[in-house]
Amino acid sequence: MRVIVSLKSGLGALVIAGLLAGVAQAASLQVVVGNIRDARGHVRIGVCTRQEFLGDLCVHHAVVAAHPGTVTATIDDIPPGAYAVAVYQDVDDSGHLKRGFFGMPQEDVGFSRDPSLGLGPPGFDASALRIGDVGGRIVVTMHHFGS
């Protein structure tokens, strides 16, 4: 069945608005990263799906110049769903997290929901949060492992 609607009529606009009302809207997420030690490099923020988590790049991401204390970034156009936020301070601007012996991070890292970082990175479920149509704000605390 094909529906043709003229946008010139008020009825046409109402039909289109009604069809779009059922479509989930993308949201914005403000990420506040705290406990940054210095101004070296950039803070890289990823809002990651399960498949992207702990990979090199999450589709929804931001890069912010580092400075001591707190930095903030807003990431737009995130479809509703389950995500985990992963953050690290890329002090050498290499574009990836430096790791040392046994894979331990040599740069500072942080995750949504501040999970325990014991002997390895957290799993997705330990950091997962739900982003809805309206977005929101999250605070991530950096943990110091590097020099």
Task: Explain what this protein looks like in three dimensions.
With 147 residues, this protein is mostly beta strands. It contains 2 helices and 8 strands. Strands 2, 3, 5, 6 and 7 form a 5-stranded antiparallel β-sheet that branches. Strands 4-1-8 form a 3-stranded mixed β-sheet, with no helix packed on it. The N and C termini lie far apart (65 Å). The model is unreliable at 1-22 (pLDDT under 50).
Main structural class: mainly beta
Number of domains: 1
Quick one: CATH class? Answer: Mainly Beta
- Our estimate of the beta-strand percent is 35-45%
Total E-strand runs: 8
Q: Which blocks of ≥5 consecutive residues have pLDDT under 50? A: 1-22
- Compute the number of helices: 2
Alpha carbon gyration radius: 20 Å
Mean pLDDT: 85
User: Given the C-alpha coordinates, what overall shape results?
Assistant: globular
Helix content: 10-25%
For this structure, the quaternary state is single chain
- Could you please say which CATH topology applies here? Immunoglobulin-like
**What's the CATH architecture?**
Sandwich
H/E element order: HEEEEEEHEE
N-C termini distance: 65 Å
